[in-house]
Known about the structure:
The chain is α+β, with helices and mostly antiparallel strands and about 160 residues long. It is built from four helices and seven strands. The mean pLDDT is about 85.
Amino acid sequence: MFNVELDSSVSGPEYYHPGRSISNNDLVRAGELHPDFAEEYKFRHRVYIAEIDVDALFQSKNQQAVQPIAKFPSVRGDFSLILGKGTRYADVEYVVRDSKIPELIRIDPFDRLEVGPFPESKYALAISLVYQSVDRTLTDGEVETFDKAILNSLKQRLGAELRQ
């Protein structure tokens, strides 16, 4: 994956709709085709275009190797945690990754509740964890062990609780 930061404030060629395009200088530009140009070709719907300077992209120092498609299935688990209001998602992610479980390949937040059946000094954060092994199918017991290790770490280090 390339690390490309995009800027929507950079003006671009006139064939892009103003305010509806993003750019990384001359490396990557994407956005909506300006209505005047779309009208010339009698397009009935909005048209989106992208331009990538492939030569510059491949010369980038931020290249990473492409990973092969996994042969073994991944396992996804979700946790709904109760945390103190001062606890940031970055803290949660750090603690989860610091559990050093090699099979943990992804962590994503997907829901946050500020009010609910918990004290006002707390909030609920739902996270999704994805595990996968490169050499075998994970067993239910292994996944349960990973989950317990992560939950124990979150409880000890951040005071997290599972939402009931």
